[in-house]
Specification:
Length: about 220
Amino acid sequence: MISCREAMKVVGMRPEETRVVVQGSGNVGGIGALLLYREGYKIVSLSDMYGAIHNDAGLDVPAVLAWLEEHRSLSDYPDADHLPNSEQLALDCEVIIPAATENQITSKNVANIKAKLIVEGANGPTTALADKVLEERGVMVVPDILANAGGVTVSYFEWVQDRMGYFWTEEIVNSRLEMTMVKAFDEVHAKAKEHDVSLRTAAYILSIERVVNVYRLRGIFA
């Protein structure tokens, strides 16, 4: 949600005018959709392993997740159209959040993508060939190593608390997460502008630079 919000500022879109397709409905897709819903985004599609649901007027995400919790499947969910997973990513929308499995946006279906922004919740949901096509079309892709880094960031916070004997409130954790994720996005975006590259390439450049700098500071190669 944080990465999506920061990317929206760059591309000049507002939540209330944005239709979002979320592939997945688990801890990443479902919770991500709920957080975006609370921020005013129109979530038009969610999916699970059995298929996808779609309502262009917007889904009631809390109701969808409650149904999923009770029935363990979106198959018979009312108040929405049902379609196969293979058709979900081709829906009319401004944002796609692939939050299921890897290799979902490929050279075979990238031509059908209508979104202006893709925020990768899953690991490796976009293939290299598809990524190149999206870049050439001017579609911003927030890469997985940036967009879904919130989980490992909070795991680090847990480690810090255990080491130091801290007991942070949820509000403190969320505020620290917010600062970390916004700073990370800003740094990656700045690196992308500096080198005129995609956010994915910029994230790789930045991460490699940091590893190199640590080695230099430690004098391993001196």
